[in-house]
Amino acid sequence: MAVFERRTLDNGLRVVTANVDQAQSVTCMVMLAAGSRYETRETNGIAHFAEHMFFKGTERRPTAKDIAGEIDSIGAEFNAFTGKEYTGYYVKCAAEHRDVALDVLVDMLRHSKFDPDEIEREKGVIVEEMNMYYDTPRDFIGGVYENLLYGDQPLGWDIIGRKETVRGATRDTFMDYIGHWYKPSRMVVGVGGKIGDGLTERIDELLGDLEPAETGEPDPVAPHQNGRVSVHTKQSDQAHISLGVPSYPLLHPDRYALQLLATILGGGMSSRLFSEVRERRGLAYYVFGLNHSYTDAGSLYSQAGVDINRIDEAVSTVAAELKKVARESIPAEELEKARNFSKGRFVLQLESPQGLIMFGLRKEVLEEGAQDPEDVLAALDRVTGDDVARVAQDLIDEKRLRLAVIGPFDDADRFEQLLD
């Protein structure tokens, strides 16, 4: 299994590589410790909006078509993503075109024009993307749930922003955000696959003159109490629910026990939630459980799309499964199945150069250093049944349960009674 190598340029920018000898392709990625969490109330959505604008043209490649044309000319794929704590830009291509991929990526990130006319045009695109998000309850339920958990602070806001902040954005809004956060100390270049020669020197040529600067940190998540239930009223043929508890931050010592607990609850088609909610009771088409952690907060939760006429039974069933796993010991056979499931899915994730470097960069950006995959597998092997039981008992209590609902309902009290 590939091992990550890490170098740091003189200006503080980090370079993480994972060489895969048998690969014929390479994934070049730039990831930044900057996302929607780094916004203010007035600029909510600017991180995601900026991601769009980086593809709209530079001085050397004046239009979006010029950028896309150069990527197409080498048969490559490129895209970007924005999270609450990181943003990434990448190109996947044949290994022989690595330097072209890096040149395009860096040109976009350093020399995009942010033309005011393009900004105005793109506002319409973002608003329509926002409308699509709101009209897709399976996606939007996550935003309703995180707003319930974190409230009116960056972790509780939607990444895509609000219509009024998007429509109010100007070129200066982008320049202020990028000028503050897009600095070498927050930037990691990752290359995975068939890396080739002279990579560090090439990156130094492209980014070594980027001026270092202190950026500070976003505010830590503040304690928040917004009730136990949030109902977003929407006429629909199906209800969507997200039910869970606050959990641990990314680097918590019990993070691997928490991962196995989440797998036991809702990982795969033989998990407790899938078996009980879908297979035994026929309450949902999709149901899963997972843990999602930020650097200083997290949540263990289940999500499902359920029959609106049986939503009370669905909420009660999911809540009962959460409480049950905290009351009873985990059978050894079930623990081993969860361990093998987690390890297997992790290994599959690392099979592609893109998955491999994505894993390494997320660790580097969020968790104080790229971690060798073998160390993750070893950490999962060390988790005991007692560890999982202890974490379940620590986290899952009916008073800590939080429920978000999207559907034709308006009575939060009705659902709150189902959590007790």
Approximate helicity band: 40-55%
The fourth-level CATH homologous superfamily of the largest domain is Metalloenzyme, LuxS/M16 peptidase-like
Distance between the termini: 47 Å
Architecture of the largest domain, CATH level 2? 2-Layer Sandwich
User: Structural class of the secondary elements?
Assistant: alpha+beta
Q: Which band does the percent of strand residues land in?
A: 15-25%
Biggest sheet strand order reads 1-2-6-3-5-4
CATH class category name of the largest domain: Alpha Beta
Q: DSSP helix count?
A: 16
In this structure, how is the largest beta sheet organized?
6 strands, mixed
* Series of H and E elements: EEEHHEEHHHHHEHEEHHEEHHHHHEH
Shape: globular
Q: Which whole number gives the mean pLDDT? A: 96
Q: What are the segments in which pLDDT stays under 50 over at least 5 consecutive residues?
A: none
CATH fold topology of the largest domain: Cytochrome Bc1 Complex, Chain A, domain 1
Rg of Cα set: 23 Å
Describe the protein:
Helix content is 45%, strand content 19%. It is of the alpha+beta class and 420 residues long. It folds into two domains: 4-207, Metalloenzyme, LuxS/M16 peptidase-like (Cytochrome Bc1 Complex, Chain A, domain 1); 229-419, 2-Layer Sandwich (Cytochrome Bc1 Complex, Chain A, domain 1), CATH 3.30.830. It has a six-stranded mixed sheet with strand order 1-2-6-3-5-4, sandwiched between helices. A five-stranded mixed sheet has the order 7-11-8-10-9, with helices on both faces. A hairpin with a 4-residue loop joins strand 9 and strand 10. The longest helix is centred in the N-terminal third of the chain and has 19 residues, at 116-134. 46% of the residues are buried. The model has no long low-confidence stretch (mean pLDDT 96).
